[in-house]
C-alpha cells in the first residue's frame, strides 16, 4: 500500500441510505432496488450460515 492511497478520490457508493431519490429516474430506482435486494439475500445467507454453525456447536456441547 502506498503512502498516497488516501489521496485518491473515493468512489461513491451505489446507494446511500437516506439519500435524496427525487433526481433519480425510474430505471435508476429499479437498479437500486435490485442492488438492495441482492444485499438482503447476502445478509440472510450469512445469518443462516451463522445460525447453522451455532446449532452445530450447541449440539456438540450438549450432554
Tell me what you see in this structure.
The chain has one helix at 26-60. It has 63 residues and is an all-alpha fold. It has a domain at 25-63. The longest helix has 35 residues, at 26-60.
Descriptors for this entry?
mainly alpha, 63 residues, 56% helix
Give a short summary of the structure:
The protein is mainly α and 63 residues long. It has one helix at residues 26-60.
Layout of secondary structure:
Layout: H1 26-60
Mean pLDDT, all residues: 84
Structural class: mainly alpha
**CA-atom Rg in angstroms:** 20 Å
Low-pLDDT stretches are none
- The quaternary structure here is single chain
| Shape estimate | elongated
Strand content: under 5%
Which sheet architecture does the biggest sheet show? none
Fraction of helical residues? 55-70%
Q: State the order of secondary-structure elements, H for helix, E for strand.
A: H
Total number of strands: 0
Count every helix, treating DSSP H or I runs of 4 or more residues as helices: 1
- What is the end-to-end distance? 50 Å
Amino acid at each position: 500500500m502506498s503512502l498516497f492511497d488516501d489521496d485518491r478520490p473515493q468512489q461513491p457508493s451505489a446507494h446511500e441510505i437516506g439519500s435524496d431519490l427525487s433526481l433519480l429516474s425510474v430505471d435508476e430506482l429499479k437498479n437500486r432496488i435490485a442492488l438492495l435486494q441482492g444485499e438482503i439475500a447476502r445478509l440472510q445467507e450469512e445469518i443462516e450460515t451463522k445460525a447453522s454453525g451455532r446449532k452445530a456447536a450447541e449440539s456438540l456441547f450438549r450432554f
